[in-house]
Design goal:
Length: 342
């Protein structure tokens, strides 16, 4: 069940490393912004990529998962995580339709995890012991390994390419190295690009509507998702709530709200166990700042909270009826910030 929660949090959807110099990784100031009026004018929320442009984003994800299992006794578990990335981006080329090919490199990864009091720390700038390399393999593979993304003017990540270097790096660090054929290498690169790289890249480049917008303009994005025997339709609604000035440039301030609709069976029986889903609860909110004069995302701060209860009833080996109730509460916060270099 946990993998479904993670998908929601990623779709609706992480600040700089502790060891990075603050003056080199300073986000643009977005507090107490000056409000401006553009009257009845409407604007395009389009990215304006230009060949040779270089920019940097920080991405911070903060998540908390709490699980309570009630059976003969009550068991509780809790996990907190703060994961931070720094992305260095360079526009390699721009097509006639304004779709850009962008090179991205994760130059820093830093995270802290606390699972029921057991703490784990990772810093890509620190040398790892050989025994820890397998434990943090996915982060080692991502760190300082460039890949490319094709992104259109509306912020949609169309394609992830040049992931083969990550596949090679992963294979070289594996205790059981494989001799991959060209077809196997390409297939693994495509799978890695779609399942892991595309979602995190899309968080840096938020999708915006194709039409012009003014104050109070709204639009929605819907995405269905399986949840056990049910289907959950996530509904993200965005509204332009104001226009502001950021470093002298005009920007749109956009609110985000998440809700969900559920359909399908809440009850069922599988392998002699009867299960019953309680009514899931999900909500989310956030704020996005987009500089429409220069066509760049300045900041996006969005979060979700999901609570779901599952009750399972069945007989044990002595044919005694046993009932277990599991409640899972997941919260997530994603913060994307454009970094300026001083």
């Amino acid at each position: 069940m946990k993998k479904y929660f993670l998908i929601v949090l990623v779709l609706f959807a992480a600040a700089c490393s502790k060891n990075e110099k603050k003056e080199e990784n300073k986000p643009i100031q977005t507090e107490n912004l000056e409000r401006i009026s553009i009257g009845n004018e409407k604007v395009n929320l389009n990215y304006k990529f230009e060949k040779g442009d270089k920019f940097k984003y920080s991405l911070t994800t903060k998540s908390q998962n709490e699980e309570i299992v009630v059976a003969d006794s009550t068991m509780k578990s809790k996990a907190d995580q703060t994961l931070k990335y720094i992305f260095d981006c360079e526009v390699i080329d721009v097509d006639e339709d304004k779709t850009a090919e962008i090179s991205l490199v994760v130059s820093s990864i830093n995270f802290d995890i606390d699972i029921n009091g057991q703490k784990i720390h990772f810093d890509s700038n620190q040398k790892l012991k050989d025994e820890d390399k397998q434990k943090f393999l996915e982060y080692i593979v991502l760190h300082n390994t460039p890949f490319r993304a094709r992104i259109n003017q509306y912020g949609e990540v169309i394609e992830i390419t040049r992931v083969e270097k990550m596949v090679d790096k992963m294979n070289s660090l594996s205790p059981q190295k494989q001799k991959l054929t060209t077809e196997q290498r390409s297939a693994l690169a495509k799978q890695l690009g779609e399942s892991a790289i595309r979602p995190i890249t899309q968080m840096l480049f938020r999708e915006f509507p194709h039409n012009e917008v003014g104050k109070d303009s709204s639009w929605e994005k819907r995405f269905p998702q399986p949840l056990g025997s049910m289907t959950m339709e996530n509904i993200a609604k965005f509204t332009v709530v104001d226009f502001v000035k950021i470093n002298g440039d005009k920007a749109a301030k956009i609110s985000a709200q998440l809700s969900a609709k559920f359909s399908g069976k809440k009850e069922g029986t599988e392998n002699g166990i009867t299960y019953n889903f309680g009514e899931p609860k999900i909500n989310g909110d956030g704020t996005i700042l987009f500089d429409f004069e220069n066509g760049k995302l300045i900041k996006a701060d969005t979060g979700t909270k999901m609570e779901i209860t599952l009750t399972m009833t069945g007989k044990d080996s002595l044919q005694k009826t046993r009932k277990t109730k599991r409640t899972t509460i997941s919260t997530n916060r994603n913060i994307v910030e454009l970094i300026i270099n001083n």
